[in-house]
């Protein structure tokens, strides 16, 4: 069983994490805890300055979402990654309130001549020369997958076939991962289609865009900590014993299949006993079974059973893709391992990501399987189909810094490595770079 204790101090932060005082991680607890840890004095912190960004909404790619969710937080890294071209200082000065009274909680750096900001300047200078036609193809891919998901779900009500149900689940996942392409942009209709999985895009925008993308593989990364205690990727005896880690290897398929149901059920339960965590667009998750029932001769009970199987297939496939997609390679940095010698945020990101070699350069597979992952973390607002154009800039900048190359593995190798990481209890003593 899990040891009953949890690591509460992240290597990339100066103070213990408030939200880790709870046994189970939740998104609301993470938001509340981060506001306490960041001490941004009910404003928005960027580096050592505090801003009132209410008037900045029209200048930020994330729009109202970022404004609502990040008040009282340090948003330095999120601000940098969501503005490829530097924001004019005169514009920021309009919203400046005062200097922060305390140092930043996070030790990762974004120096002007450091790796990440150098890379960003070079990419920003090339934006006008890039081919933007892949954005149209991304849109059509997502639209086709969404339509195919609905059509095949209706076909499944006419055929007593688990294969058709599994294919329907696969299409739901592919369109959901494609919808993730739009999470880092202003509110758009594509994001709502993610809710067909029973998960909610508003929650995932927080756990993915504000947490995972910024503090990857650290204790601040909700995508690494939410599956605890069932799946524990942190190499520490405080989180899980060796016996429990072995059990978790065999528990994975169950966790995968039940992830979507568990996520929704937990939010319903917490909404009943505590503060409401449900949104009006949660009802989108039930539009598919409603349509299946209206358009088929099956009874409501038969449709519900069939839909539950489809969602279980979808949950398993989504978990298989996402948990084995980029981050949980045993040689990747996980909180507790030795940090890189250079604390540049971009170089830190490179220690936490190993790309998928078998889908590199393929627009469709990269879009539906979290491909080109390093570049997506660096430039999340860019359409996924455009990222492959940035590899020459990434590689030349890396060569100047340390002569290294982005790491890559096949999907099968990622699965093997992810299981090795589940079993790993000792921190890696060697830091990359």
Automatic annotation (TrEMBL):
<keyword id="KW-1133">Transmembrane helix</keyword>
<keyword id="KW-0479">Metal-binding</keyword>
<dbReference type="GO" id="GO:0020037">
    <property type="term" value="F:heme binding"/>
</dbReference>
<dbReference type="InterPro" id="IPR001199">
    <property type="entry name" value="Cyt_B5-like_heme/steroid-bd"/>
</dbReference>
<dbReference type="GO" id="GO:0006629">
    <property type="term" value="P:lipid metabolic process"/>
</dbReference>
<feature type="transmembrane region" description="Helical">
    <location>
        <begin position="246"/>
        <end position="266"/>
    </location>
</feature>
<dbReference type="InterPro" id="IPR005804">
    <property type="entry name" value="FA_desaturase_dom"/>
</dbReference>
<keyword id="KW-0472">Membrane</keyword>
<dbReference type="InterPro" id="IPR036400">
    <property type="entry name" value="Cyt_B5-like_heme/steroid_sf"/>
</dbReference>
<dbReference type="InterPro" id="IPR018506">
    <property type="entry name" value="Cyt_B5_heme-BS"/>
</dbReference>
<dbReference type="Pfam" id="PF00173">
    <property type="entry name" value="Cyt-b5"/>
</dbReference>
<feature type="transmembrane region" description="Helical">
    <location>
        <begin position="162"/>
        <end position="183"/>
    </location>
</feature>
<feature type="transmembrane region" description="Helical">
    <location>
        <begin position="139"/>
        <end position="156"/>
    </location>
</feature>
<keyword id="KW-0812">Transmembrane</keyword>
<comment type="function">
    <text>May play a role in muscle cell metabolism.</text>
</comment>
<protein>
    <recommendedName>
        <fullName>Cytochrome b5-related protein</fullName>
    </recommendedName>
</protein>
<dbReference type="InterPro" id="IPR053100">
    <property type="entry name" value="Cytochrome_b5-related"/>
</dbReference>
<keyword id="KW-0408">Iron</keyword>
<dbReference type="Pfam" id="PF00487">
    <property type="entry name" value="FA_desaturase"/>
</dbReference>
<feature type="domain" description="Cytochrome b5 heme-binding">
    <location>
        <begin position="32"/>
        <end position="101"/>
    </location>
</feature>
<comment type="similarity">
    <text>Belongs to the cytochrome b5 family.</text>
</comment>
<dbReference type="GO" id="GO:0046872">
    <property type="term" value="F:metal ion binding"/>
</dbReference>
<keyword id="KW-0349">Heme</keyword>
<feature type="transmembrane region" description="Helical">
    <location>
        <begin position="278"/>
        <end position="295"/>
    </location>
</feature>
